[in-house]
Amino acid sequence: MKLFLANQMRKLDEMTIQKESISSWNLMERASKQVFDVVVDTFKVDLPVVIFAGPGNNGGDALAVARMLRMTDYRVMVYLVTQGKPLSADCENNKNRLKESDYQAVDDVEKIVIPDDAQIIDGLFGFGLTRPLDGFYADVVTKINCADKTCLLSIDIPSGLFADKSNDEHDIVIKADYTVTFEAPKISFFFPENEGYLGTVLIKSIGLDENAKSSIESDFYYTTKDDLCLKKRRKFDHKGVFGHAFLVSGSYGKMGASVLAATACMRSGVGLLSVHIPKCGNDILQIKIPEAMVINDVCDEVISSIDEDVTRYQAIGIGPGIGQDDRTALAFEQLLRKTQVPMVIDADAINILASHKDWLSLVLHGSIFTPHLKELERLVGKSINSTERIEKVRKFAAHYQVVVVIKGANSVVVDASGVCCFNSTGTPGMATAGSGDVLTGIILGLLAQGYSSLDSAKIGVYLHGLSAELSEQSEESFIASDIIAGLGKTFNRVKFNKDGETKMPF
User: Fold this and answer.
1) pTM (2 decimals)?
2) Which of 79, 376, 385, 499 measures 20 to 30 Å from 315, CA to CA?
């Protein structure tokens, strides 16, 4: 699913209006009807509804919803919060469709009375906000947030929240229980720092023109199952068709990471897998995953040398459980200098590169980095917010011509062209030891099968999260092995079940 910046959303509205020969007010009616339907499904009829409408088109949506609710059994109060600012044309139009007794224009926060147990609709400001709220409007939002309310629903975006960039931690923003957004989520919805403002996000279509969507170029995407294209296996295919992967992993006391990554790689469909490990892990690997071929390092406890011919592999992965021993670092440099295929670089392999930045030039184009936030910080530097973090990663990916997976609740896959794909799957239960090792194995298996670097990362992250969603384990009892156990069901779900609504995993 393509995501759009605020100025692109305005352009989409304009193109739809022109293509369909409708008025902007008609488009506003579509949006308002979607909000109205959610309100009717969500709000209780016996509790008061308080609607806050600002001077712009977001306020116009709110006034239209007020008009629709006036024709039901809901008890509705409407505050037109403009502080003397002129209304947009469509907001004015919707105000004129109400009786003067249906709303109260206020320019003093003390005149706003919110009944106990109120159900509030926030239509103060939409996605076009470019600076933090202050003064009167900040006071209104603070009063709403502090009210003894039952439910708070924001139209399109919580007022005060920026659509395209991070807010400062001190900004005043509505804290919604529900956000009804139109056509596609806003980019800022994927930032961890905004979790407390959004509540449950519902994506509703207002029929924006599909040709217009296609014509507008975007660097931002939201990966859903409809964006995935798994390769079909043919009757006479054999294991050689599905690639030979090479995994460098493990050290004394961390052979579990190697087992998880190797098993996940095999479960992702790779034809053959060879695993280079320290000698201490030989029996563990041979017993736990007999399908993999094991290559023992000359050293008992760490990876110290990678002497074998790596030209026979279609993809190489390194990092899970390897540690940061000096001998391991030199072995990694040795591998970088002779590999001829893209690599999946994870965990301590990332930390080693962060300590030897001059080795980054040796990383083959198309390689995939899979850092968690601390590893990413070591690699690209500290960031004050999600906007800065993503921009640093985009520059890093472009400079080294690689793909980077920023792991998190909405893992972001960033490629060398600057494209950013936010993932739609996953659960909080995945915040457990070994999840990253499993992801490395899945991506490595896909890369070895001939998927592009970007597709390997996108599909891998999606499958990784969906497998967790399909698990019967609770979030508390969930372990990384449960992701591997669910991969068969997950592949089948992606291949054969195309039904279901797009959801936001908040």
Assistant:
1) 0.94
2) 376
CB 182 within 8 A of CB 34: yes
CA proximity to 334, closest of 302, 362, 368, 298: 362
| pLDDT, position 502 | 41
Geometric angle at alpha carbon 77, from 72 and 79, rounded to 5°: 135
- Determine the pLDDT at residue 77: 97
Residues 407/373, Cβ–Cβ less than 8 Å: yes
Query: Residue 266 is encoded by which pair of tokens?
Result: 């095999």
Count CB-CB contacts under 10 A for residue 172: 17
* Cβ within 8 Å of residue 197, ≥6 positions away: 158, 161, 173, 174, 175, 176
CATH class, range 6-218: alpha beta
Q: Which CATH code of 3.40.50.1360, 3.40.50.300, 3.50.50.60, 3.40.1190.20 fits the domain covering 226-496? A: 3.40.1190.20
pLDDT at 83: 86
Question: Using one digit for the tens of pLDDT, what is the confidence trace for 89-105?
Answer: 999 999 999 999 999 99
Token output for 51: 């609607």
Provide DSSP, 68-116: HHHTTT--EEEEEE-TTPPPPHHHHHHHHTS-GGG-EEES-GGG----T
Does the pLDDT value for residue 504 go beyond 90?
no
| End-to-end CA gap in the chain | 18
* Chain mean pLDDT for the chain: 96
- By the 10 Å C-beta count (0-12 exposed, 13-18 middle, 19+ buried), 337 is classed as exposed
Residue 497: predicted pLDDT? 62
